[in-house]
Amino acid sequence: MKWQTPRSYLRERPDSAYAAGSWTMVLFASGGSLAIAAVVGILVTTWMTGRITRMNPAAIFISLLFWSWLWGVWGALLAVPITGMIKVMCQHVEEFEPLAEMLSE
To answer: Could you tell me the CA-to-CA distances from 31 to 2, 18, 43, 46 in Å, in that order?
Structure first.
């Protein structure tokens, strides 16, 4: 079998290079998939996490941004548990009850 570059392969077999029929359909399908993943990842996951932990979705989103900026991927993974612990601690300390109220629903 002769090795070919992608460009020569496309020149010899233009119809079999992609199954969608046109590059615009390929880009449209890829963009649609990316948009759906972004909406689910940003909005739906944040809303569901807020419902489970009884925390404000905006507070969860801001905590995700902050902890991701501070610690990267590990901060993103630990953002909700850390913020939940901060909320519980604030509920038990009288001076920080306004902060706990702000983090609550």
So the answer is: 34, 16, 18, 22
Report the distance separating Cα 7 and Cα 17, nearest Å.
10
Cα–Cα distance, 52 to 65 (Å, whole number) = 19
Its pTM stands at 0.55
Whole-number Å distance between alpha carbons of 97 and 89: 9
State pLDDT tens for residues 15-46: 554 555 677 877 888 899 999 998 888 788 77
DSSP structure class, residue 40:
I
Between the alpha carbon of residue 20 and those of residues 7, 35, 37, the distances in Å are 18, 19, 21
